[in-house]
Amino acid sequence: MPTAILALNAGSSSIKLGLFEDRDGRAARRAKAVLDLKEQPLALRLKAEGASGEAEIGVADAGDLRAVLGGCLRVLDARLGLADLAAAGHRVVHGGESFTGPVRVTQEIFGQLEALVPLAPLHQPPALRLIEAMGTLRPDVVQTASFDTAFHAGQADLVRRFALPRPMHDRGIKRFGFHGLSYRFIAGALRRDHPELAAGRVVVAHLGSGASLCALRDGVSVETTMGFSALDGVPMATRPGALDAGVLLHLLGPGGMRVEEVSDLLYRRSGLLGLSGISGDTRELLTSDDPRAREAIDIFAFRIAQAAAALAVTLGGLDAIVFTAGIGEHQPEIRARICRRLGPLGVRIAEGDGPGRIDAPGSAVAVLVIPTDEEQVVADEALRVLSTEG
Length: 390
Hints:
By secondary structure, the chain is an alpha/beta fold. It contains 15 helices and 14 strands.
């Protein structure tokens, strides 16, 4: 019986799961599932051959992740069987300076990951809670961690260093970058399907509720828009992106706000939601007649195009742009707005939704839509850890 691997991708309001099996050293997908923690009743949306559909997990409290994960495992076991489950791989957003590749999670490693929570307060805790829950529910299963920051760890100090006193950089105050599992998948997809582009200068735009861009040269990360935290870079659903540090000094000083209030403002009340006063969801904003919604979308597209142009400077030119993640893959109107602003760089797109190439004849830059798959990377890396230990 092939070894089964469960990949878990914990978000602030959802959990994505992928079930894979070892086929000759490669993680091959058996099923994918999503649990929306905001919906009631909690139900797992499952896609698998002969087992697709929606199944309630029998848990009412979305905040009890141990019970939630237990319900998900029961559904997966009943529909697909988990007797052969050997490993659970987790997407962990922040690996700090210590983790530049996947690791088996031990008690010592878990403690080091907990220490990184202040650097990713919105994203790190759900992953750690799932690791704890899996350890309780299935102590026989090896657990591994794959890190979003790891893909960017080889970037030069030229792009990682802030203009702060040098000892601060040595203490870890530097640009880490995120969405690395997505960028790793896209780099692999380019090497497989578009090797001539993969060898060149590529900007990847991972656009979802969290958004960032990454410059790839020969498939390697050389710069990315997120920095020390997942607040940096372009505007997002509820996060502001790049922000003058003087604004924070003002809010914490004359503005009279407490640190906790500023944190809530930056992580949950800014970005597209703050700009529009309506929603952080681009789908809602695109259908709204409110001028604030249009302005929010315009700012979003403008800042993304601006960031892409800046990354082209780092690369010394631009051969291709790749759009991925929820907005990047499924919202052609936003892609079009971004690409129109990149016209001075020779970007031209044709009509079409993708996936695949969407650049128009005569475009100086290839434009592609490639669906990302972070769970595939997590499963591949979990299998690598298992094979190394074996």
